[in-house]
Amino acid sequence: LAKTTQPISMDSYEGQEVNITCSHNNIATNDYITWYQQFPSQGPRFIIQGYKTKVTNEVASLFIPADRKSSTLSLPRVSLSDTAVYYCLAHNTDKLIFGTGTRLQVFP
Amino acid sequence: DTGVSQNPRHKITKRGQNVTFRCDPISEHNRLYWYRQTLGQGPEFLTYFQNEAQLEKSRLLSDRFSAERPKGSFSTLEIQRTEQGDSAMYLCASSLTGTGISGNTIYFGEGSWLTVV
Description:
heterodimer, A: five-stranded mixed sheet, four-stranded antiparallel sheet, 48% strand, B: four-stranded antiparallel sheet, 11 strands, 0% helix
């Protein structure tokens, strides 16, 4: 299972775009990259998953460069309700190994 | 609401007592997982089931912990002789998986908080 490294915390303001970068230098060929969001006292919520290039859904975009050694979660126009912990995982099985995540604080 | 239901949501128990948590996964999901999360940390894998078979157990799952999924549907996690160090949020998750290859979305429940006093 690839180890991931992401910033411990980030601050932003409402309406701004937030980009959280995750490093996974030893990612395996068959690893996928998955991001989860977690609010206090709740379970993690799936945000987005990708293998390479760019993936976009209704809540976020995921950018993965060709070498796949990093990935960037992009949240457009964040609101106060996006304040949460965001986890990046690189995995090729359903056994997920979570790090401590990035604590995003959105200010008014 | 992801469709994974956990009960109870909160449990306060005295040290030495037994507690049991129940998880109802998303219907027809064949894989069910248990995780534990303490304050400030990410979830830690405990065990998982493929249908009714328990396929893997973490070293975190001491002999006081037992998990079952008798009919391949709901699951229970029992902690015997609870200790204060067992205080945590216990998360259940489920997925529909064919061969265990990545790309399957794993859905988590809201968690069951355990406080051992």
